[in-house]
Amino acid sequence: MNHELPRAAAAPVPVLRLGDVLLITLQGDLHDGTAEQLQRDIAESIVRSRVTGVVIDISGVEIIDSYLGRVLAEIAAGSRLLAARTVVAGMRPAVAITLVELGLTLPGLRTALSTEAALELLAEPADRPHREPR
Amino acid sequence: MPEHHTTARNTENPVPTQEVGAFLGRRREQLAQRWADEPLFRAVFTVSRDEAVEAGRAVADALAQVAGSGRVEDTDSPGFTPVREQLTRMAASRGRAGLTAAQISREVDALRRPAVDLLVADLPQASSEHVRECATTLTALMGTLRLVVMETSLTEGQALIDRQQVQLLEVATPVIRLWDGIVGVPLIGTLDSARSQVVMETLLESVVDQQARFAILDITGVPTVDSLVAQHLMKTVAAVRLMGAECVVSGIRPAIAQTIVHLGLDLPVVTRSSLADALAYALHRLGADIVSVTPGGAGTR
Question: CB-CB: which of A101, A117, A133 is closest to B244?
């Protein structure tokens, strides 16, 4: 469809379903076109398979620009409308520093250290408020 | 050689810079000997006089080359390059001996007198006008030497300060593993951009290494918190959160708490008054509570 970007169009990001959770692993540079495609794929998968959680593993991503940062926030916001919680897992230190320096603190985004921690986070009851100690 | 110059002077006076250059080359040995007796060389080269004379020769050669190139007032003249390092060492050695910059400068200036005396004695047949011009040129040249010494020693000092600043950054930010999944950084001293950057980097690295769910920033050692420091803190907190860990700020002293409130700063982060409280909070969130074994204790923090 995007004939000037044949490679990007040819390699969509796989969206895996693990029980009630969708697992997406991003690797290397993510093309703008691929990011948009991914956003659509996730929304469709949530509706089709009725999952309640989305885990995006970005441990293999070395650069996140403002565009990709916004895409991540939009995926989270979109999933929330479809009653699924999104967790971004495994952000690298350099990426976190860059995002903070850009002023993109992504307040609506849940994060976890690793995919495992993200799955644990999603296993907790959804609406349970943090037990604040006295 | 001298005959050649005499004949040259009789027809027309050579350019003063060329004359001074030739003089420095001709009287190199005598100059080096006299300079070796000056306080600057005597104090630096304490081991042997030969060493001082050798250093004096090198300086005389460099000056001769600078005068020959005609750029007597240019501190960047390539003629100085060979002796720059030696001059730096000499100035540094005097500095270590407790001399101020002004005193070192005066010691370098003391080299001028013997040189000018020697020059005047070397030109007995020249017109007084020419001698005066040559002496002025030599004085200018020695002034430039003085500048070069001060410049190189200042650059050296700046480099030392830079090195120490980097060392300080490394020393001042230890990340401590407090418990399984809990790391802490005791921040000491004022937080500026460079330091907060280093703190952020080391903290994030250790969050990954230790797979830490909680990071405690202890600011007991931070003397004041203004809006800039608060901003640095918030940046670190935001970066830690993006990594998937949670940040707790501890060690806010009563006075600092009041300052923050007076400034109207917003710290949207979990805070605890002491590191112990922060650790208790983190442990609680990890599912481990600290309880008093004696009945009637205070419960969880």
Answer: A117
